[in-house]
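Entry type: protein chain
Record version: 2
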Amino acid sequence: MNPLFRIACTGLLLISPALAAPVSAPAFSGLPQDARVALMPLNVELFMISAGGLPEPVAEWSAQARENMSVSIRNREAAVGRTLVTDIDADDPQVVDLIRLHGTVASAIALHHYMDRYELPTKGKQLDWRLTGDTARLAERTGADYGLFIFLRDSYATMERKATMVVAALFKVNLGGGAQVGYASLVDLRSGRVVWFNRLSRQWGDLRDRASAEGTMDVLLEDFPQ
């Protein structure tokens, strides 16, 4: 199973209710008037859940979801940054490394910040996380001050899976179907510090549909810093 898919689904099981709950780093009060925000290539994968419950990535669905989400973000540029930098090379090895690193850090934030039992004594409820990659170099190359990173995993039950779920329900066994788990982070590129974070975890929504994807972005970017 894809490791990040497994982490995301674990997060869904651990985190409830499925409401947005954005948090900000101490002393971060908002974006400066002249802030430039780099929209990092979206780390989005969609999966099909087979009858046996195994997730299988579907490239066509993922591409459609990334397109729908990108359109939604570009349409709300005024809400996510005074200037949105969108020409980030998704194939740049440094960018690829930062995106992967963000997936790991965001999953850790979701686990340790939102779940009391996994709270870290050294951090408590403070949003005190950094991307340890070379974010400053990205800032120099793009002229952006902040980076908006988005990680999202979504899955959909096949008809065979749905039939299996119905049969299992007759025996009072609850089998999982699709799930949508996402994280959005605003990172200060000069320091690598995560200054704002939000997470989404729910069992509905369809990123393959533009209107539904718009709803997902409404939740994920709720209370984005101004």
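Comment: The helical segments are 3-14, 59-75, 77-80, 93-114, 135-142, 159-170, 210-220.
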